[in-house]
Write a structure and sequence with these properties.
By secondary structure, this protein is α+β, with helices and mostly antiparallel strands. The chain has 9 helices and 21 strands. The strands form 4 sheets. A 6-stranded antiparallel β-sheet has the order 9-10-1-13-21-20. Helix 1 packs across helix 2, helix 1 packs across helix 3 and helix 3 crosses helix 4.
């Protein structure tokens, strides 16, 4: 559970790993047809996350509720000896090392070596002698222990979500030494209780520690599911990341396949022709996300229907848009269009009139849409006056990168076809200086400004979901025909898990 719990927390907080599962989980290649999103975590990521094992194990020992242990035994001359251990607590816990192994089509094997812990509590004992002499004593005790812990974690599709089952848990005791207070009691008494208690204590420790590890795994899973549900939802737009099939465990990676359907106001599209194949992903990076063209197109459609593809510009932003180059022709065209009004007294609105069409290609993401641009001036004390209105069919190829915790969208190729043109400075629509200026302005400044604004908006949205807390190393966004692959290495923000333990356990 140590690595599994940590793994799930890290990955899902990054994006979409091992979360809500379908009511019926399928297996086999046929289930790929309904796969919209895939996450693959490789062995290097497992080894990195396994370094944080101590937090989970320490929490399990710290939160385990150890019951009182009682027993009795008949002894020659002493009669019947009864004993009880109470107020058992764990102190000075340390872990020497932890190892993880992925067993193909089986489970995650985690081996924790040399867990040393000091148990403290109170020993109460008494005996009735042959001459009916009754003696009762109470003494503080310490138990030094050295334990190896073996966990075999299954990832199951259960109750409509992925559930880690850490019940396959084994403890091996290399040391279990009882110390009575000050070691002043007779040596035979210490030996007697060591023999009495050892077997019973081992059973209690195994039961309570393994039970608590499984409980911590479930609590972590619920915590992660809440994070994932929040990450893939923004107001009325929800990404359905229920599982299309059971998680796959190979010797070098773990992979989960998600539906990736987009829900918007209770409506959703269907996916039955996914092009995903495991061979599309490699194993050289820690983490991979595969996203289908269908999922990205559905997200874009939902954003359009929700009225999010709108951009308003004024002041300095509007000036940057219209003053791409300082020439006499530009100054003349701007003066004619704005009729002498300042940029602070003007506003431009850009919005999509039709649902953008998305096509993923090796050269980038090709987006096509009918776009409107409206420029208005705001005369003092008067109604806004529309001085320019255009409708254009724009096709743009965009390449995406992620650097310094920002998503950057860069247009690399674009074309414009004018559909509607109305301008008070050019009623006939045939003034070559204005037409040339506007064409150049849209290509050189307009399209880059729109794509940059979309990138900034997506960055803000992702950071509001806490993505910026993660150290994302050398991410690559690779587009291919019909899908995109995001591959990266990462560093895990330990404070997230520590905060979880502080608040949840």
């Amino acid at each position: 559970m140590c690595w599994a719990g940590r793994m799930i927390l890290g990955t899902l907080s990054i994006l979409l790993v091992l979360v809500h599962a379908a009511a019926a989980c399928e297996s086999g290649p046929f289930s790929y047809r309904a796969t919209g999103i895939v996450c693959r975590m490789t062995k290097p990521a497992a080894l990195l996350l396994n370094q944080e094992t101590a937090h989970v194990i320490q929490a399990a020992f710290r939160n385990a509720k150890f019951p009182n242990i009682t027993g009795e035994r008949s002894m020659r001359l002493l009669g019947r000896v009864a004993y009880g251990l109470s107020n058992i607590q764990v102190n000075d816990l340390s872990i020497e090392r932890s190892e993880v192994e992925l067993k193909e089509d089986d489970a995650i094997y985690i081996s924790i070596k040399n867990v040393t812990a000091l148990f403290k509590g109170t020993l109460t004992y008494g005996y009735a002698g042959a001459w009916f002499l009754q003696l009762f004593h109470s003494v503080d005790f310490e138990i030094e222990s050295s334990i190896d812990l073996q966990l075999n974690i299954d990832l199951m599709c259960q109750k409509e979500q992925v559930t880690p089952d850490a019940s396959d848990c084994y403890l091996t005791f290399h040391k279990l030494t009882l110390h009575l207070q000050g070691d002043k009691e007779p040596g035979w008494l210490k030996q007697l209780f060591t023999d009495f208690i050892s077997f019973t204590l081992k059973l209690v420790l195994k039961r309570e520690v393994c039970k608590e590890i499984n409980a911590v795994a479930q609590t972590l899973t619920n915590f992660i599911l809440d994070l994932a549900a929040n990450f893939v939802r923004d107001k009325d737009i929800i990404v359905d990341i229920s599982l299309a099939s059971d998680p796959v465990i190979k010797a070098s990676y773990i992979e989960s396949h998600h539906k990736g359907l987009v829900l918007y106001k209770n409506s959703s599209s269907m996916l039955s022709d996914s092009v995903f194949s495991p061979s599309l992903l490699t194993e050289s990076r820690m983490l991979y996300f595969w996203l289908s063209e269908h999922s990205l197109s559905s997200l874009t459609a939902a954003a359009f229907l929700d009225g999010r593809l709108v951009l308003n510009l004024s002041g300095e932003k509007l000036q940057e848009l219209f003053e791409t180059e300082d020439t006499e022709e530009q100054r003349k065209a701007v003066q004619m269009i704005f009729q002498g009004a300042s940029y602070n007294d003007s506003v431009a609105k850009v919005w999509s009139l039709s649902q953008p069409q998305i096509s993923l290609q090796p050269e980038g993401t090709v987006m096509r849409s009918l776009v409107a641009v409206e420029v208005s001036i705001l005369p003092t004390g008067e109604e806004p006056l529309v001085v320019l209105y255009m409708e254009k069919e724009i096709t743009v190829t965009i390449q995406a990168t992620y650097a310094e915790k920002k998503l950057i969208l860069q247009p690399v190729d674009s074309s414009i076809e004018m559909k509607v043109f109305k301008c008070t400075a050019d009623p006939s629509g045939k003034d070559p200086s204005i037409q040339s200026f506007l064409q150049n302005m849209i290509l050189v400044a307009g399209i880059p400004e729109v794509t940059s604004s979309i990138g900034s908006a997506l960055t803000s949205l992702m950071n509001s979901k806490r993505l910026d807390l993660f150290e994302i190393i050398n991410p690559e966004i690779i587009t291919r025909r019909g899908y995109v692959i995001v591959q990266l290495d990462f560093g895990f923000p330990s404070h997230l898990l520590l905060n979880f333990f502080d608040k949840s356990l």
